[in-house]
Amino acid sequence: MVGYDPEAKCVSAVEAAAAGSASGLVTRVLVSPLDVLKIRFQLQIEQLSSRSPTAKYHGILQAVQRIFREEGLAAFWKGHVPAQFLSVGFGAVQFMAFESLTELVHNVTSFNARHSFVHLVCGGLAACTATVAVQPMDTLRTRFAAQGEPKIYPNLRHAVVTMYQTEGPQTFYRGLTPTLVAIFPYAGLQFFFYNILQEFSRWVIPAEAKNGASIKDLLCGGCAGVVSKSLTYPLDVVKKRLQVGGFEHARAAFGQVRTYGGFLDCMRQIMREEGPDPSNVDLEKVANIIVDQSLKDSVFSKEAGRICYTIIQAESKQVGQSIFRRSLLNRLQQEYKDREELRTRSLQAWICYVTFICNIFDYLRVNNMPMMALVNPVYDCLFRLAQPDSLQKEEEVDCLVLQLHRIGEQLEKMNSQRMDELFSLLRDGFLLQEGLSSLSQLLLLEIIEFRAAEWKMTDAAQKYYYSEVAD
User: Fold this and answer.
1) Are 2 and 85 in contact (CB under 8 A)?
2) Which of 307, 277, 278 is nearest to 290 (CA)?
């Protein structure tokens, strides 16, 4: 049991310290290679990706291979001696302080020492105490893990003497501020979630099932560690960057280096320089996502043209870049070829597609003119909406009229003959086709008069048609 429990036989503070030390020692041996990788990744300024040609490390497997090839197997245990002092010391102080604090809470206050909130506060305070005690070892461990070959510090004694003489005693406490900011919530949340998970496991697992107690503790501790570490990880990155301040000459072979003026300056530089890079966005995927969403969402399909126009404008500023535009037009062409199948499969998706392609036609320009490549596909879609079976459906008639209101005048300027043919179909449908709803008839008559008035709505027509629609 972690923490003071008045209802159980509790370990003493010394026993807790010994247990914490032993667990830290064994854990450090096992996870040291992963810790070296983590530190190398945290200190790398360049993006951790194969698409970043200047980056030394691109991923876990590539980093393992490169470190092994350049520095040998022993490199994965660089800084192991100060890391062991760190783990043993931190574990001892943390567990001893935690046991003492929870017992103090039980004896001095009315709070339940086993309550999750008590574990949260006492765990955070215990971790802060341990951090201050072992921070010099943490800085030394980071320096050893960060250096490549040839080594700047051949051994622990040389590192301590060199750092003290060249940088002063305060250098051993570099990164203490973000460490304390991170460690209180980290350790507090770890003990908090561990306690919550233990309570949950008692509820799920019957009391008589004692054989899996060790596995249960392992799972609870592991899950609690993952959650708390994930929440406080950004501060750990800042801490590592500050700990190698003044050590830039040893990092030159690893890529870019930075000098930080403190905790806040480090955070600002990281956010400004290493945030998401727009050039790494998969624009082909973005184009497909926009089209997919436009086929599902009628509201989105009406505004997607504006979004695409904005992206294309930004892309045009990059010399030789037209990935998004090309991908968008290719996808539109693909859906255009399958338009009958799309209409059969889903009338709503078909109407959304027509709205979307008309929207794109309205926004995209070449030399301030609509794209010629879209003129015939848009006409073909509108002709399909003017067929007798489509005129029987109010949704398609409504879509046809809306699009003609929006782009009809532009389309006629591009190809007036096809517009004459389209309106010939609409007049025949209005006059000759049986079974049209009153709303469809009203919409068709309105768009016929709208075009006859040179694509303008007179006040009389506005009042007549739209009062009728409202009624």
Assistant:
1) no
2) 307
